[in-house]
Every structure is written in C-alpha cells, then in structure tokens.
C-alpha cells in the first residue's frame, strides 16, 4: 500500500507540473521559439534575443506553441539612433485569411524624433482598428515591458505595467472578437519605409545599418491552445490554471484607468474611432461603446 501511495503521489506531482508547464513559460528563446526568416540575423546571449536588420534581410521568430487567453510579456529595447523606416513588431496571431491578431508595432524615426507605438487588433480577418502613441520615455536606451493581456471579455495593452488601450468583447452586439483561434507569439525587425516613418516620407538610411533590437524576459501565462476543444476549456473561469481569471487583470482598477486616461490624453496621436474621414462618417460599431 505504501508503494501504491508513493506511485500515486508521484503521478499527481507529474500531472501538476505538466499543467504548470502548459500554462506558464519564462522563455529561453532558443528553446521556445523558432526562426521564421533571417536565420543569420538572429542571435541569443544568455537567453536574451537579438534581432538584426540590414539591407539584405530582416529577422523574425515565432513561438512553438499557440495560446488562447492569458498574458504574454517581453522586455524590449528598440533600435537606437536613426531608425527611420524600420519596424520592430511584437504580436500574437493565428493563421489564415480569417485570422485573429493583437499587435504592438514600433515605428522608427529620424534621430531625435520619437518612435510611434502602433497598436491594432484583428478578429476574423478584420483589422483597421489602429491606435498610436508617442512614448513618454526613451524606448531605445533601456528595456521596457510590453504586455498583452487577453481574456474572454477584453484585450488590454500594457506598457511598463500601465494600460494604454482596451478592446472589449461586444460579440453579442455584432462586433467580431478574437476568442476562437489559438495565437502564437511573434517578434520581428523589418523595413517598411514606404509607410512606417511619417507616412513613408522618411526612408531607411542603410548607411546606419545594421539596425538591432533586443528582447529579454519573455513570459507567457496562458491557456495552451490544443484545438477547438480548447475554446470551452480555456474560457472556463473555474479552472485555476487559466491565468486570465486573476482579478488584477480581468478587471482594471480605478487607479489603472486613471493612469491610462492620462497616457491617452497626453500621448495618443491617432485613434481610428476619431477618424471620420477614413470611415466616411460610418464609424465602426465598437466606437460608440464603452471600452474601459
């Protein structure tokens, strides 16, 4: 009987560790990501990521596993100096024409000019929901935390622990929401000087290459996507391994909302919900609904 109890205990411990392994990753990039392009422009040092862009190629990685709901975060240091035309991207995405996607993109600029923090969200293949910010810090002289929190009711973008944007689930009112497809995590550095800097007016100065962005301390506290059966399991708030159920994430505090409103009033430079010319006066339906 004692042997049976020991075997049972070992089984329970192994099962518990397996659950934790599925839901929490503090990533070694070499172990948890694969290179999607620019193999010779990517390196890691002590688990830290180094993405390189020159005139011959950029670089990109993606996570080996997909997630459905939870929190992913990474410390990122952007390209210093003249970064015009370059785009460093950190985002989650599924595949296919009706894909879901949650974006952080960092649009470079001429020396002395601020970066643009570009956010967007796609649901069932539809995007065009951009909001942009000028950073209230220098994102090139140190690492800053960029976090995506995604649960069945809302997506929240955080910078250094401060929320900057919320997109709520109004699916019952006809607004598409990303809740039925697993998404992998991507990071990349590439050139888009046809649009990225001041609408494409400022081009990449290749004499400044190579351009380098760095990442470290990637963490994923998520429900692992394992096919359509995950939709019900990952949305179940009674399952303690679903990290998004933490109250500090699933509902913003009054203090968090106050800080977000200060960032939005002081540093937001574009909001699709205010671009009446673009939508010819017929605004997306979520624009008239409460987001936070």
Automatic annotation (TrEMBL):
<dbReference type="GO" id="GO:0042546">
    <property type="term" value="P:cell wall biogenesis"/>
</dbReference>
<comment type="function">
    <text>Catalyzes xyloglucan endohydrolysis (XEH) and/or endotransglycosylation (XET). Cleaves and religates xyloglucan polymers, an essential constituent of the primary cell wall, and thereby participates in cell wall construction of growing tissues.</text>
</comment>
<keyword id="KW-0808">Transferase</keyword>
<dbReference type="InterPro" id="IPR013320">
    <property type="entry name" value="ConA-like_dom_sf"/>
</dbReference>
<protein>
    <recommendedName>
        <fullName>Xyloglucan endotransglucosylase/hydrolase</fullName>
        <ecNumber>2.4.1.207</ecNumber>
    </recommendedName>
</protein>
<feature type="domain" description="GH16">
    <location>
        <begin position="18"/>
        <end position="215"/>
    </location>
</feature>
<keyword id="KW-0964">Secreted</keyword>
<dbReference type="InterPro" id="IPR000757">
    <property type="entry name" value="Beta-glucanase-like"/>
</dbReference>
<dbReference type="GO" id="GO:0016762">
    <property type="term" value="F:xyloglucan:xyloglucosyl transferase activity"/>
</dbReference>
<dbReference type="InterPro" id="IPR008263">
    <property type="entry name" value="GH16_AS"/>
</dbReference>
<keyword id="KW-1015">Disulfide bond</keyword>
<dbReference type="GO" id="GO:0048046">
    <property type="term" value="C:apoplast"/>
</dbReference>
<dbReference type="GO" id="GO:0004553">
    <property type="term" value="F:hydrolase activity, hydrolyzing O-glycosyl compounds"/>
</dbReference>
<keyword id="KW-0378">Hydrolase</keyword>
<keyword id="KW-0052">Apoplast</keyword>
<dbReference type="GO" id="GO:0071555">
    <property type="term" value="P:cell wall organization"/>
</dbReference>
<dbReference type="GO" id="GO:0010411">
    <property type="term" value="P:xyloglucan metabolic process"/>
</dbReference>
<keyword id="KW-0732">Signal</keyword>
<dbReference type="InterPro" id="IPR010713">
    <property type="entry name" value="XET_C"/>
</dbReference>
<dbReference type="Pfam" id="PF00722">
    <property type="entry name" value="Glyco_hydro_16"/>
</dbReference>
<feature type="signal peptide">
    <location>
        <begin position="1"/>
        <end position="27"/>
    </location>
</feature>
<keyword id="KW-0326">Glycosidase</keyword>
<dbReference type="Pfam" id="PF06955">
    <property type="entry name" value="XET_C"/>
</dbReference>
<keyword id="KW-0325">Glycoprotein</keyword>
<feature type="glycosylation site" description="N-linked (GlcNAc...) asparagine">
    <location>
        <position position="109"/>
    </location>
</feature>
<dbReference type="InterPro" id="IPR016455">
    <property type="entry name" value="XTH"/>
</dbReference>
<feature type="active site" description="Nucleophile">
    <location>
        <position position="101"/>
    </location>
</feature>
<comment type="similarity">
    <text>Belongs to the glycosyl hydrolase 16 family.</text>
</comment>
<feature type="active site" description="Proton donor">
    <location>
        <position position="105"/>
    </location>
</feature>
<keyword id="KW-0134">Cell wall</keyword>
<keyword id="KW-0961">Cell wall biogenesis/degradation</keyword>
<dbReference type="InterPro" id="IPR044791">
    <property type="entry name" value="Beta-glucanase/XTH"/>
</dbReference>
């Amino acid at each position: 009987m004692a042997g049976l109890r020991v075997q049972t205990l070992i089984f329970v411990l192994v099962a518990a560790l397996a659950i934790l392994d599925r839901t929490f990753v503090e990533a070694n990039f070499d172990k948890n990501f694969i290179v999607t392009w620019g193999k010779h422009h990517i390196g890691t040092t002590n688990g830290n990521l180094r993405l390189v862009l020159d005139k011959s190629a950029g670089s990109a990685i993606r996570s080996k596993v997909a997630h459905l709901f939870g929190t992913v975060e990474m410390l990122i240091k952007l390209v210093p100096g003249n970064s015009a035309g370059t785009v460093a991207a950190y985002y989650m995405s599924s595949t296919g024409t009706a894909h879901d996607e949650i974006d952080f993109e960092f649009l470079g600029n001429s020396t002395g000019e601020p970066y643009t923090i570009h956010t967007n969200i796609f649901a069932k293949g539809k995007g065009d929901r951009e909001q942009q910010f000028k950073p209230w810090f220098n994102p090139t002289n140190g690492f800053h935390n960029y976090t995506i929190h995604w649960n069945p009711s809302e997506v929240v973008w955080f910078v250094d622990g401060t929320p900057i944007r919320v997109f709520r689930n109004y699916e019952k009112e006809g607004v598409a929401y990303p809740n039925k497809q697993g998404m992998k995590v991507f990071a990349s550095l590439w050139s888009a000087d046809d649009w990225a800097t001041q609408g494409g007016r400022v081009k990449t100065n290749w004499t400044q290459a190579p351009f380098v962005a760095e990442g470290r301390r990637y963490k994923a506290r998520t429900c692992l996507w394992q096919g359509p059966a995950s939709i019900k399991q990952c949305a179940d708030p009674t399952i303690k391994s679903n990290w998004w159920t933490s109250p500090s994430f699933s509902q913003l505090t009054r203090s968090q909302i106050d800080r977000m409103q200060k960032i939005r009033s002081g540093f937001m430079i574009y909001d699709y919900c205010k671009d009446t010319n673009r939508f010819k006066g017929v605004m997306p339906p979520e624009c008239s609904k409460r987001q936070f």
